[in-house]
Amino acid sequence: MISITTSNKKKVYFASDQHLGAPTPEASVPREKKFVAWLDEIKKDAEAIFLLGDLFDFWFEYKTVVPKGFVRVLGKLAEIKDAGIPIYFFVGNHDLWMHDYFEKELNIPVYHKPQEFIINSKKFLIGHGDGLGPEDKGYKRMKKVFTFPLFKWLFRWLHPDLGVKLGQYMSVKNKIISGDDDAKFLGEENEWLVQYCKRKLTKNHYDYFIFGHRHLPLEINLSAKSTYINLGDWIQYFTYGEFKNNDIKLLKYNTESL
After folding, report:
1. Where is pLDDT greater, at 187 or 198?
2. What gap in Å lies between CA 135 and CA 174, rounded to an integer?
3. Which of 140, 150, 179, 232 could be 239's S-S partner, Cβ–Cβ 3.0 to 4.6 Å?
């Protein structure tokens, strides 16, 4: 378990679901610039930064090739990490084929499952959020196929020009992957990530559960001492989490001046 202690007036930041590349690489450039501007602002007081997946709408790492583009955000992440600010990356359902590119090129650890962190005195469970809880059954079946070693080996034999184009098409068009039909509040009793968090609380205490994937900014009190946060997205809401003074808030990035 990793422990982080904030110093002076430093903060810990959380963001998720930028989906760079959707609906097309050209159309996502303005959103990439906004996200980079946010990163540039928070680097001044960030103790650590958590990116909770789906930074890219599609990502597949061949042995010597990665999808082109997104140089603004990759360069900014490299700059922040080189300045000594820790960054933690969790793969989402759109970039689940991420391997070791971030670790080798940016020195950013990559996680494929939810992880526990202690930040100051608070216990966090942090992850993207896909495939957790009692529902999401269609995606769970599809994820088993996509992560099966034989399928990844076969896909890698496609020429990158074909493989990336096919992956981008499926990512935008397939609602099981994209989750577009799931981006509405279902009511606390039907929110499967809420149910997942409540089940986890029967075995261990967590002060905060931080997830993405749902594309909805949500803050739900699970008990008097435990809160579930969903970070929203950088497509419609431009929301993020800010942990300061042992408390976390969901905030909206002001993009009007950009």
Report:
1. 198
2. 18
3. 232
